[in-house]
Every structure is written in C-alpha cells, then in structure tokens.
Amino acid sequence: MAIHIKELEFSYSKEKILKDISLDIEGHQCVAILGPNGAGKSTLIRCINNLLRPQQGTICINNTNIKTFSRKELAKRLSYIPQSTESLFSLRVFDMLLMGRRPHILWKNTEKDRDKVVEAMKTLNIEHLAFRQFSELSGGMQQKIMIARALAQETEIVLLDEPISNLDIRHQFEVMNIMKSLIHTRGILALMVLHDLNIAAMYADTVIIMENGKIIHYGPTEDVLTKENIASIYGVEAHISKRENRLSVVPIKISTQKGLM
C-alpha cells in the first residue's frame, strides 16, 4: 500500500494551512506526524481522508487519485480514527463495529460481516463489551473500540488523529501497543498525529515533522528525532539517548528565543 502526495495546498478562507506538501509513504509501518500546534498535522490527515478538499495538488492511494473514489470506495482503502468521539454515539459496541462494515455491505449485513466484527472484538479482547453502550465507556475503551471498528473495516491504511491525547498513561501505551502489533500482523500502514516525542520515538518507524504548514523533516525516526531538529522546531534543548533499540527524548531547557508553542 502507498500514499503519494504532490504539491498539496489547503486554505481556510485566506489563511493557507498546508503549503506545497509532497510526500511518498509506502509499506506497512507506523508513521508519526509531529509538530507544534497549528502546524497543519490534522488538516493533512483530513485531506488524505478526503474530509477536506485541497485547493491544489493531488493525493493518490496506490497510484489512484482519491478524487476518483466514491466515499464508499475510499472507505474500503482507508479508515479514520478521530482524536475523540466525545460519546456522540448511543449505540451498542457490536453495532458500532458493524458500522465499519458499511463499505462492504450491499443491502444488509451478512454472516460474514458479523463474523468480521466478532473477529475484531476477539483481537482486542473486548468481546465482553459487545452489548454495552458505547457512550457509557471510558475514553480508553472507546479508543480500543474505534480501532476494532477500523479492523472490521478491513483497510490497508489507518489514519489516526491524536489517538492518545485524551488518555491516561496506561491506556496510551495499551492503544499504541495494539496498533504496533496490528501493523505487523495485519500489514497495515498507519499514519498518526502525535504530540508526545517519546511515544513517537518508541513506536514510529518513520517520522514527519511539520511547521507552519510545511514538511520540515521526513525520514527514519532515528534520523529525524535529533536534538538539533527538536531545538529548531520546538525550541527545547533535549538529550537523546538510545537504550534497548529505543530512543528516549529528555527535555533539558526551553529556549527563550523560540518562544512557547
């Protein structure tokens, strides 16, 4: 699976949010999109999902322009997990997951669709929640259910917009461990907007750093998450260490020249 973006630009009214974005991402891996607030990270994800229509440029999935896909066809290729559902759904968990099968359903759901939902629940160990109301569950459980729904949707590409920002530390690691496992076992390409540099260092194979609507750095995690890049983008002096094949980012001092982000 592959995403190819060329000369992408997006504006809200007269304010340009994305500026000349060109990007090629291939293979099953975890790609972290980092950057200060207002850098354009979430806007980029929403353009890839065709929720926002850019004024210029192209986005292709497996060499096909997403503009040629219907919403249903696009949903067979990529799934989207938002930052927070804000408990808007008053559905049972099983029915929530069944919604992920909608791109595959011609008229009504079949035994195969129901089996895919059960399979997704088993993968994330949430069978016991099948008949619980989604809105009654904790934020961590809701995120697990949204991941399960993406699994039931059977897409090769999963887009996640700040999937752990509202979770406590236990659920943060639980959600990230689940996604990392699924990337390798299911052959998924996952693009996720993150704020935590250490989470990105632990889980991402590739890192994109954005600033002011542009991609400033893109490449393997070790090559991108350097103290020089962190100081330049975030205005934070950091110590980078590597232990057990994992990077660790330890902030030391905030630069007064860069200012608070």
Describe the structure.
The chain is an alpha/beta fold and 261 residues long. The protein is 33% helix and 31% strand. Helix 3 runs parallel beside helix 5, helix 4 crosses helix 5 and helix 5 runs parallel beside helix 6. It contains nine helices and twelve strands. The model has no long low-confidence stretch (mean pLDDT 89). The protein has a six-stranded mixed beta sheet, with helices on both faces. The radius of gyration is 19 Å and the shape is globular.
Gyration radius over CA: 19 Å
Unreliable stretches = none
The coarse silhouette is globular
- Order of secondary-structure elements: EEEHEEHEHHHEHEHEEHHEE
Strand content: 25-35%
Helix content: 25-40%
Oligomeric state of the chains present here: single chain
Largest sheet: 6 strands, mixed
Secondary structural class: alpha/beta
Q: Which strand order do you get reading across the main beta sheet?
A: 6-7-8-3-9-10
Give the overall pLDDT as a whole number: 89
Query: How many strand units?
Result: 12
Q: How many individual helices? A: 9
Could you tell me how far the N terminus lies from the C terminus, measured between alpha carbons in angstroms?
35 Å
List the helices and strands and how they pair.
Elements: E1 2-12, E2 15-26, E3 30-34, H1 41-48, E4 56-61, E5 64-65, H2 71-75, E6 78-81, H3 93-99, H4 111-123, H5 139-153, E7 157-161, H6 169-186, E8 189-193, H7 197-203, E9 206-211, E10 214-220, H8 221-224, H9 227-234, E11 236-243, E12 246-254
Parallel strand pairs: 3-8, 3-9, 6-7, 7-8
Antiparallel strand pairs: 1-2, 1-4, 4-5, 9-10, 11-12
